[in-house]
From TrEMBL:
<dbReference type="InterPro" id="IPR036736">
    <property type="entry name" value="ACP-like_sf"/>
</dbReference>
<feature type="domain" description="Carrier">
    <location>
        <begin position="7"/>
        <end position="82"/>
    </location>
</feature>
<protein>
    <submittedName>
        <fullName>Acyl carrier protein</fullName>
    </submittedName>
</protein>
<dbReference type="Pfam" id="PF00550">
    <property type="entry name" value="PP-binding"/>
</dbReference>
<dbReference type="InterPro" id="IPR009081">
    <property type="entry name" value="PP-bd_ACP"/>
</dbReference>
Amino acid sequence: MTDTMLAMIAEELERIAVEKGERLPLLTPDSRFLDGDLPIDSLDLATLLVVLEQRTGKDPFRAGFRQFTTVGELAALYTAAA
C-alpha cells in the first residue's frame, strides 16, 4: 500500500505545484517537504493532508501530531493508519 500512497501523494503534489505555476521535481520517498526542493509551503502541506484524508478516509493525526519530513514518512503514516 505504501506504493499506492506514494503515487497518491505525488499526484496531489503535482496538482498543487501546477496550480502555483511551479514545476514539481522528481519525487522519491526521501523528498523533503518544507526544507527540500519541493515547491510547497506550509499551507500547501496542510492542503495536501486534508485532500489525503478525504481521498483515503484515514486520519493518521487523529490521536495527535506525528512527525514526518519526507514523502516516504508521510506515506508510511497513512499506510499504518489502514
